[in-house]
Amino acid sequence: MDAFRLRMLRELADHGTVAAVADVLAMTPSAVSQQLKTLQREAGVTLLEPAGRRVRLTDAGQVLVGHAESVLAALDRAQADMDSYRTTPRGQVTVSFFPSGAAMLLAPLIVGARARGVEVIGRDIDVPAARAPQQLTEFDVVVVHRDERDTTAWGPRFTSAPLLREPLDVLLPPEHPLAGAARLQLSELAGQDWIGVEGGLMVDDVFKSIATLTGMAPRITQRVNDFRVLEELVRAGIGIALMPRYVVLARDLVRTPIGDIKLARRIEAVTRAGAEARPAIALVLDELRAIAGLVDGSVP
Asked: Residue 169 to residues 247, 253, 257: CA-CA distances in angstroms?
C-alpha cells in the first residue's frame, strides 16, 4: 500500500471530510476521493461508507488507520535516523501557538533556533487545546495552554513536553475597592462582573473549575479572546478578569493573587509520537524549555 494514500486515510480520520483532507494536502477533493478508492482496491475490503453527504470509516477502515499510524511513525523514525547522521540539526520546523503564548515565546524561539541552524515558522491560532491533534496535521509542534486541573491524556499517537505552570491572578482597575489587597479570597469577589473568553478556551475552563470547586459560578458579562481588549474593558470598569501572571500588560492595572484556591494554566508542547526524535524538532523543544525556564525564573 502506498504511504501517501495511508496518510490520506489518517487525515480523513482526523478531519472527518474529504474536503478538509484536500485543504490540508493542497489537492482537489476529487483527487483525494480517487486516491482513497485506489487504497480501498489495494486493501481488498470496504474502507469507507456513505454517511449523508459525507463518508465515514468502516471498522476495517478504522483498523487500517491504526496500521497507518504505525507505518507513518516508522517512516518518521527512519527519517530521524537519517537526520541523526548530520552533525548539526537544520531545516524548517513549523510551530503553532495560542496568542499570548506566541507573544511570550515565539520571538526568542525564532532567534535561538536560527542561531543553531533551524528556521522556525510560527503561527498564532486561538483554538481550544483539544484541537492540537488536528493542528498537528499542519504543524510539527503545537504549543497549547490548559487549565492545570485538565488531566486529559493526549493518547499514544501524541507526545507532550511540559513547559510552564503559570498562575492566574485577578486583574482590577486601580480605583477598584479591592485593588489595595495583597491577596483576595474568592468570597470577596462574589457579585462582581467578570470579563471572560469564548467557551472552550483555557480561561473559560478555569471559570468552570471555580464553579465546581466552590459552588459559585462567576457572573460573566462580556467575552473577548484578545487580552489587550480585555485590558481595555477592565480599565473602563466594565468588569474584572483573570490574567496569566507572565503576560505583559499594556495598561496600568492591578494584578492580585487569589489566596484560597490555586488557579493556573499549564503550557505544553505537543508533537506526534516519534516526531521529537528528529534533531530539528528536538532542538525546538529544548529551546522552548529553556525560554520557559527564563520566563518563570527556574533558569537563572
From this structure: 11, 12, 5
Residue 84 has pLDDT above 70, yes or no: no
**pLDDT value of position 130:** 93
CATH code assigned at 233: 3.40.190.10
> What distance in Å separates the CA atoms of residue 266 and residue 260, rounded to the nearest whole number?
19
C-beta separation of 211 from 184 below 8 A = no
46 and 40 Cβ atoms separated by less than 8 Å: yes
pTM of this prediction exceeds 0.70? yes
For 177-213, give the DSSP string. Answer: TTTT-SSB-GGGGTT-EEEE--TTSHHHHHHHHHHHH
Q: Are 238 and 172 in contact (CB under 8 A)?
A: no
**CA–CA gap between residue 285 and residue 69 (Å, rounded):** 22
What's the structural domain count of the chain?
Answer: 3
Do 200 and 64 reside in the same domain of the chain?
Answer: no
Report angle CA 45, 19, 12 to the nearest 5 degrees: 40
pLDDT in tens, 117-159: 999 999 999 999 999 999 999 999 999 999 999 999 998 899 9
Mean pLDDT of 274-284: 90
